[in-house]
Amino acid sequence: MLRYYRRLDAHLHAGADDGTPVRGDLSGRRIFAIWLAANLVVTTMLTGTLFVPSVSLSSALVLILAGTVVGALVLVAVGNVGTRTGLPTMALTRASFGVRGSRIPVAANIAVLMGWSWVQAMLAGVTVNYVIEQQTGYSNPALFSVLCEVIVVSLAIFGHAGIAKVEPILAVVILAIMAYLFIDMFGDGFARLNALPRDPEGLSGLGIFDIVVATAISWTVLSADINRFARSERGGAIGSGLGYVASTVAAMALGATAIAWLLANGKDAPPFDPTVIVAEFGVPLAGVVFFSVMATNSMAVYGMVTSLVNAEPGRIRFLPAALGLGVVSIAGSAWLALLDKFTSFLTAIGIVFIPVFAIIVVDFYVLRRGRYAASLAEAGSRDYWYRGGWNPVAVVVWIVGVAFSSAVTYLWVSPVGATVPTFLVSAGLYWAASVAARRRSTTEDLVAG
Q1: Residue of 410, 427, 428, 409 lying closest to 419 (CA atoms)
Q2: DSSP class of residue 187?
Q3: Is 336 exposed, middle or buried (0-12, 13-18, 19+ CB in 10 A)?
Q4: Which GO terms of the cellular component aspect does the record hold (predicted)?
Q5: pTM for this one?
Q6: CA-to-CA distance for 268 and 239, rounded, in angstroms?
């Protein structure tokens, strides 16, 4: 056992899963397949169940497509920085937040991905439990959630190479089952599903659009983690963009269509409950839930391990970090009460990370014109030391962005949602404050000279 551990540890280190910059070798097609499988997931599908009958099915599908495309622009932009630098997402925050300041988004990212991992394992466990209970009478959702997470962690500890091999296979399986379900639901015609009476107390169209964009933001934490392994910027950008859009639209559309079908047939259809849909569509939909969690959750566990490793490059190795975080993720997957807080959890992700990605995009593409120094990969880089390892501009803008997002989400609800306004406000503030800080620094240097 120890010998195998050492061999796997050495293999992961050689494959740059320990945080060193990489020269990608994955084709655009492989990146597409990874992102295609990534969001063909039960959480995305169940998010789609929140939209109908607040709006018609046709309106929901249009909003899903529009929000996904807008959100994908941010995901692709951040992922492309990973392709250029060879570094994962949270390592990129050292450039704007400072070497020490980057620990703020890193800590938040680990917490967020841990929550994602728990929620997905729970949904898979609840679904597996439902199927087994129907067949045998035995029920233990917490146990099945834990067992699902054990499988996920077992996949994630093999690093990006293992994910690159498994994800395309799972994508094909999931898409085949989803196609069967769509054909079955649309058998009686689309018009009947689209003619449901609206729920006046449900989500508004802009609220739905905002949720869809926020879903892309929640996935952007993993964008550079995966896209740094792309062989070319073009392949990485096109592969991740098309893969994310295709998977998100398919998964959310499945959830929205399933709820519409249930309501049209006089069934009870509470949103965000996989057992209700599985009860109607049986084992095929249960298969979608299970395989999607295997595909997606392995990326979530990989992402949180990568974030921890890159918080201290060269000091923390991938395998022990994966095993340690894996134990926590397995233990927490039994906390089924978290399922009742999913929408609040998704909102919190947007509040915390929208300003982070606005800062990264402006810092890299506008202020630094698409180039970071090679020393960004070093834990003690002096090029990004700022003041004691902290960039006060980024930290303050992040705090303001979080406060603004919270305000327009909970206090003065924005008629256009919170995601896009928060991104634009954070981006504008960071650009203006950074330019002002540079001018002040230049003036001080001239006076001192």
Answers
A1: 409
A2: G
A3: middle
A4: plasma membrane
A5: 0.83
A6: 39
What b/e sequence results for 220-237 when a residue is b if at least 16 CB atoms lie within 10 Å of its CB, and e otherwise? bbbbbbbbbbbbebebbb
Residue 14 located in a structural domain: no
CA 234 to chain CA mean position, Å:
21
Domain that holds residue 143: 22-448
φ and ψ at residue 385, rounded to 5 degrees: -85, -30
At 26, is the secondary structure helix, strand, or coil?
Answer: strand
User: Which alpha helices (H) appear in 282-418, and where do they start and end?
Assistant: 283-311, 318-332, 342-361, 392-406
**How many domains is the chain partitioned into structurally?**
1
**Dihedral sign of CA atoms 384, 385, 389, 390 in order:** negative
The H-or-E segment that residue 6 falls in is helix 2-14
Phi, psi of 67 (to 5 degrees): -65, -35
d(CA 99, CA 114): 23
Question: Domain holding 349: CATH number?
Answer: 1.10.4160.10
Sequence-distant (6+) residues with CB within 8 A of 266 are: none
Confidence of residue 446 (pLDDT cuts 50, 70, 90): very low
Tell me whether residue 242 is in a domain.
yes
Closest CA to 324 of 163, 102, 156, 167: 156
